[in-house]
Amino acid sequence: MIIEGTVIRVYGDDISTDIIFPSEAAKKERVPEKLGPYAFFKFEGDRKTVPSKFYRDAKKLLEGGQKPIVVGGYNFGCGSSREDAVYTLKHSGVIAVIATSFPDIFYRNAYNNGFAAIICRTRNVNIGDELKINLDEGRIVNVSEDEIYNFSLTENEKKLIRMGGVYPIMKRFLRKKLSGDI
Amino acid sequence: MLLLIGDTIGQTITEKIISNSTGRYVHAGDTIDYLPVDTKFVNDPAVPQVISDFEKEFKTILGELYERPEIHKKEKTFVILDHLSPSTSPEIANLFNRIKQFGRQYEIKVYKECEGIEHVLLAEDGKILPGEIVIATDSHACTHGAIGAFAFGVGVKDMVCALATGHIYNFTVPETVKIDLKGRLRKGVYAKDIILYVLGQMGESGCSEKVAEFTGNVINKLSMDGRFTIANMAVEMAARTGIMNPDQKTIEYLESRTSDPYKISRSDKNATYTEKRLFNVNQIEPQVAEPYSPANSKSISELEGVKINKAFIGSCTNSRKDDLRSAAEILKGKKVNDDVELTVIPGTKNILKWAEENGILQIYIEAGANIYPSSCGLCFGNNLGVLGAEDVCISSINRNYLGRAGDPKSKMYLASPATVAASAVYGEITDPRKVTE
Question: What is the largest CA-CA distance in chain B?
Fold first, then answer.
């Protein structure tokens, strides 16, 4: 599996889910597919504007045939367990988040949605860089900066991405369980 | 490590709980494809997605076998209305009615609106037991580590999988960091100060992917209320969860609350820890965490005098009896400063009742505090008491992230209930020891 995209943002450490998806938005919209326009809406551009600046920038990239990738530092997605943080990124068209570390809840939520959260220390990544991510080999090629970064995914994580999330896997498990195979 | 014949490798409490539950002798790093879950609970903001995903994805499969699709271990599945209650709009009222209908349909307990904050209420009600694997759609599920349960927050999809199958997918047994707390607390220093201090030393991602196991004579001496406060904030250093080894106090706490059997696990003496940290609490002063991180903690002497106009005592961190009592001791016979709004939210209705019966509520009322019904309040950022742009608040909650409790321009300081109370009296960050002296 190879993901190709363009870096839309480079964040520092400790970006909380409160920043990615402020709880105010939870009162307005609860359908995951419709959460994209709220990404970072309280903190980027005019906070009253939905769709947010992040979402508008993501759309611009997508219209130009480029897929947005978010880069973060340590602890990306910390704090609240709200899965909306993953939904809002995914439904803004973001195809992967690369960060130095993720807290467990955000990390699980990402893979449960078939969304790549890649643990990797990227040395020299800038907004606008083109990245080629090889999920099987665990390699990121930064085409713009001519650099290579390595990471690794477990077999279960690859399976979650391949299957598009956890539900197909757990449906199969449930069927086996109910038919007495487990 | 050289092992002699007959030696066994010790296990941490976390490894033991997972071993007991899976029937497999595990150590950190082992992956379990399907992890069984004992107890689970869902809070109001997560319920709509949980209901719709459960019905869309799993109802048909369950319906093929059962006449009526059932939730796995429904008697150990709970719903709490705390983040959005009391309802402040017709939409939320409609949502609550829909949640209650779901509860009736699947025969799961839905606690009443404002009955309590999930992590305070379920422990108080004896629903969480030592040795259990517990999941909740809330990051502060780690609070229940104080009971010796392996409890952690999950998103909607893990919860839906557990409701349908009793398991979550793909779980790696986490490593453990042992956090040994030794020494004697000074006067005016509480459990909240200890954990704020530890967070300051460990950093906001200092326990990433690992379990924080709190031990030592400080933990032994602490009340269960204090232990909950410490376990509650383990997630603030990115820990998978916090946990404590159950003791006589744990057993006594559970005695009046449950008659269900449970199995106590404790870490072996020769258990393997990734890291051991020793903190001596002798010299710790009351702590205050500056915006915008709970790990930005400092000794109060560095922040005394910072003007505040809002003060809040509540949340799953600090809304229990010990908390309300320690703040009331400061407030007794005093008035909240003219320029400050002090809000108090007892963690559960039972705690409110206790406060009323023990004259504690009276102290708050006479001091001029606002008492709100049991709920998360401003801590969820869009309910009772949220902050405006100009607000500077000192509170007993767990997070002071940018914009979490309201306007992104607002400022939030974190402290113990006693420090919050002292600051409310003087209108600026105040050392509680100066008030009681």
Answer: 72
CATH of the domain at A46: 3.20.19.10
Give the closest-approach CA distance of B237 to chain A in angstroms.
9
Closest-CA distance, B84 to chain A, in angstroms, reads 9
Give the pLDDT band of residue B66 (cuts 50, 70, 90): confident
| Domains, chain B | 13-172 (3.30.499.10), 176-260+272-280 (3.40.1060.10), 288-436 (3.30.499.10)
- Give the total number of structural domains in chain A: 1
Asked whether the beta carbons of B181 and B245 are under 8 A apart, the reply is: no
Residues of chain A with confidence (pLDDT) below 70: 45-48
Degrees to nearest 5, angle at CA B76 with B71 and B80: 90
**Which pTM does this prediction carry?**
0.96
* Chain B residue whose CA is closest to A169: B169
Interface predicted TM-score (ipTM): 0.96
CA torsion, ordered B317, B322, B326, B328, to nearest 10 deg: 100
Chain A residues whose CB is inside 8 A of the B402 CB are 16, 18-19, 43
Structural contact between residues B229 and B236, judged by C-beta atoms closer than 8 angstroms: no
pLDDT in tens, B186-229: 999 999 999 999 999 999 999 999 999 999 999 999 999 999 99
Summarised one tens digit per residue, pLDDT across range B67-124 is: 788 999 999 999 999 999 999 999 999 999 999 999 999 999 999 999 999 999 999 9
For the beta carbon of residue A162, count every other beta carbon within 10 angstroms.
12
Chain B interface, best mutation among A29, A35, A48, A83, by max B CB count within 10 A: A83
* Amino acid at the residue B182: K
Q: If you average pLDDT over every residue of chain B, what do you get?
A: 96
**A109:B155 CB<8 A:** yes
Q: Which domain holds residue A166?
A: 2-178
Q: Which residue carries 């970064």 as its tokens?
A: A149
pLDDT-based confidence at B371, cuts 50/70/90? very high
B205:A16 CB<8 A: no
Is B154 in the A-facing interface, judged by CB distances under 8 Å?
Answer: yes
Torsions phi, psi for B393 (to 5 deg): -120, 145
How many angstroms away from the CA of A138 is the closest CA of chain B? Answer: 19
Q: Contacts of residue A47 in chain B, CB cutoff 8 Å?
A: 408
